[in-house]
């Protein structure tokens, strides 16, 4: 009698695993770039679940690459140093003094913690920044505000990506964890680069199958704030039309998704990082849980 019951209670587990089979087959050996950010970055339980998900992907035969920023941690550390945070055009004005703090927080705090969490599961994660091996090269970014170019300090615009070091780590079975800092070949300075933009540029350069961006919302809403209906799938052209009306926080994420799918990445997804194991739910279930952006199909109006 006990045996039958045991079989029964375990059955849903088997069904869940079988549902994942076509996705496991499809994604095997593929590179997936994950932008780690938002609440998942500061909540201990979500951080631990994120690390489990990424290691699960690695064991399931995928090649995860993690890219992170660290907005809240940078703000907290700048406050401690008595340095004022000012934002222009949605970007943090970064003085040389602030840049030292940014670099210290990203490479010395956020990245180290993430590497530590992943490595609780095995010798997988290796931390690096965009400076290492010229992985990300940038030039000084000067946004245009009211028709004038504005100096916002050490904020960089990506000019080049060299994926050699990342590919070597992936070939060795490692999980690269990359801080979004870059060096400029023009002036030799180190620049702070938007992590959403960096993740998208890396996904395109690596020929990743998927870019996943963790956010603090469920996905892209159909008609926010009038409705909380999430758009589950849209093409690059459909997204492009929506861009001018998006909230400022979503713009770099959705521009990143657009850049990725227009440059060879099969799908880009914005998912809710506040949901435990959202990465696995998105990649290995039929429903998925966020907004997926796909390239335009032949014949789509561009």
TrEMBL record:
Keyword Oxidoreductase: no
Name of the protein described by the UniProt record: Acetylglutamate kinase
Protein keywords: Amino-acid biosynthesis, Arginine biosynthesis, ATP-binding, Cytoplasm, Kinase, Nucleotide-binding, Transferase
Pathways per UniProt: Amino-acid biosynthesis; L-arginine biosynthesis; N(2)-acetyl-L-ornithine from L-glutamate: step 2/4
Catalytic activity from the UniProt record: N-acetyl-L-glutamate + ATP = N-acetyl-L-glutamyl 5-phosphate + ADP
CDD domains associated with the record: AAK_NAGK-C
Domain Aspartate/glutamate/uridylate kinase, first and last residues per copy: 30-272
GO cellular component, one term: cytoplasm
Binding residues annotated for substrate, in chain numbering: 70-71, 92, 192
Subcellular location: Cytoplasm
Coiled-coil annotated residue ranges, if any: none
Source species of the chain: Streptomyces himalayensis subsp. himalayensis
Principal location listed in the UniProt entry: cytoplasm
Gene field: argB
Entry GO MF terms: acetylglutamate kinase activity; ATP binding
Annotated positions for site Transition state stabilizer: 35, 253
Protein family per UniProt: Belongs to the acetylglutamate kinase family. ArgB subfamily.
Signal sequence coordinates: none
Protein EC: 2.7.2.8
Cross-referenced Gene3D superfamilies: Acetylglutamate kinase-like (3.40.1160.10)
GO BP terms in the entry: L-arginine biosynthetic process via ornithine
Family matches, as InterPro entries: AceGlu_kinase-like_sf, AcgluKinase_fam, ArgB, Asp/Glu/Uridylate_kinase, Glu/AcGlu_kinase, NAGK-C
Role noted for this protein: Catalyzes the ATP-dependent phosphorylation of N-acetyl-L-glutamate.
């Amino acid at each position: 009698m006990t045996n039958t019951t045991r079989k029964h209670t375990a059955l849903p587990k088997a069904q869940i695993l079988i549902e994942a089979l076509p996705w496991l087959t499809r994604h095997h050996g593929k590179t997936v770039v994950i932008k780690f950010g938002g609440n998942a970055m500061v909540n201990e339980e979500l951080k631990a679940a994120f690390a489990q998900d990424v290691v699960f992907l690695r064991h399931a035969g995928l090649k995860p690459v993690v890219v992170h920023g660290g907005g809240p941690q940078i703000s907290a550390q700048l406050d401690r140093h008595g340095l004022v945070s000012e934002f222009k055009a949605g970007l943090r004005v970064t003085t040389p003094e602030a840049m030292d703090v940014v670099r210290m927080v990203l490479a010395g705090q956020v990245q180290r913690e993430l590497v530590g969490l992943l490595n609780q599961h095995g010798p997988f994660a290796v931390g690096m920044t965009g400076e290492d091996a010229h992985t990300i090269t940038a030039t000084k970014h000067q946004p245009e505000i009211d028709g004038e170019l504005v100096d916002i300090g050490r904020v960089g615009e990506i000019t080049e990506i060299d994926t050699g070091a990342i590919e070597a780590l992936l070939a060795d079975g490692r999980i690269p964890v990359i801080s979004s800092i870059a060096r400029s070949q023009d002036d030799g300075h180190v620049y702070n680069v938007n992590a959403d933009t960096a993740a998208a540029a890396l996904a395109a350069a690596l020929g990743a199958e998927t870019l996943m961006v963790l956010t603090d919302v469920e996905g892209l809403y159909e008609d926010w704030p009038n409705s909380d209906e999430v758009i589950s799938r849209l093409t690059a052209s459909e997204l492009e039309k929506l861009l001018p009306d998006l909230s400022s926080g979503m713009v770099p994420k959705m521009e990143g998704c657009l850049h990725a799918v227009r440059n060879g990445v099969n799908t880009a997804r914005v998912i809710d990082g506040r949901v435990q194991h959202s990465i696995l739910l998105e990649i290995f279930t039929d429903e998925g849980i966020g907004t997926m952006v796909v390239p335009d199909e032949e014949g789509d109006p561009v």
